[in-house]
Design a protein that fits this description.
This protein has a single domain, classed as BH3618-like, CATH 2.30.290. It is built from no helices and 9 strands. Strands 1, 2, 3, 4, 5, 6, 7, 8 and 9 form a 9-stranded antiparallel β-sheet that branches. Pfam families: FliW (PF02623).
C-alpha cells in the first residue's frame, strides 16, 4: 500500500474528531484499491499508515440514502447534503463473498473543505454488517 506521507498535502482529509476507534488519528488520505474498478478504497492514516480502513460508496452495492442531521456536520463545513460524499467501512474476510459494510456509521467527506466525520445514524434498520454482495438464489 502506498504511504500517505509521500502524497500531496492538498489530498489530505482532516477528521477533527478522528474515526470511531481511531480518535487519535486525524489526517487521512483516500487511495484506490488496485483492480477494484473504483469500488473499493483505502482510508489511510497519514500519521500511521498501518491504520487503514477499506471503504466503498455504499450506493454502488445497495439502495442507500442517508438522512443526516446537517447540524451534526457543521464542524466540517457542510450546510447541504449535496456537499457530501458518503462512504461505508468494509469488513473483508478471507472469503470475499462474506464481506460486509457498515451502513449504520458512514464516513462523510466534504471535499470542498477537505474535512470528514464518521457519524452513527439513529436508525435501527441500518446494519453494521450489511452483506456487500447479494447471495445467489438457488
Amino acid at each position: 500500500m502506498e504511504t500517505a506521507k509521500k502524497l500531496n498535502q492538498q489530498k489530505i482529509i482532516n477528521f477533527p474528531k478522528g474515526l470511531l476507534g481511531f480518535e487519535q488519528f486525524k489526517d487521512y488520505i483516500i487511495l484506490e484499491e488496485p483492480e477494484s474498478n473504483g469500488l473499493l478504497y483505502w482510508l489511510e492514516s497519514v500519521d500511521d499508515p498501518s491504520v487503514a480502513l477499506l471503504v466503498t460508496p455504499p450506493q454502488m452495492f445497495v439502495d442507500y440514502k442517508v438522512k443526516i442531521d446537517i447540524d451534526k456536520l457543521e464542524g466540517i463545513g457542510i450546510t447541504e447534503e449535496s456537499e457530501t460524499e458518503v462512504l461505508s467501512v468494509v469488513n473483508l474476510p478471507e472469503d470475499i463473498t462474506k464481506a460486509t459494510m457498515n451502513l449504520k456509521a458512514p464516513v462523510i467527506i466534504n471535499h470542498q473543505t477537505m474535512q470528514g466525520q464518521q457519524v452513527v445514524l439513529d436508525n435501527d434498520s441500518l446494519s453494521i454488517k450489511h452483506p456487500l454482495y447479494k447471495k445467489e438464489s438457488k
